[in-house]
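Re: weekly structure request thread

Next one in the queue (70 aa):
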Amino acid sequence: MLAINWEKIDKFYIVLAIVLIAMAVILIFAVKGIFSSYLTAYEIDYSSISSELRIDKDKLDEAYRWIFER
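Done, posted below.
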């Protein structure tokens, strides 16, 4: 009673199962690629950032006055 009668299984269900499994594998790789690219996009390259921070106070004050004191 628990044995599967392979002759009665419609070919549609076999093809459906194969297609669903293939689409699941494609979806896994797509999501993996999306999250991998998302993490790569927000990595900071610390070698390109200089440790010396230079702020030109005169230009900063000029920009502030230009925006807020029109």
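Residues 11-41 form the longest helix (31 residues). The mean pLDDT is 85.
Next request, please.
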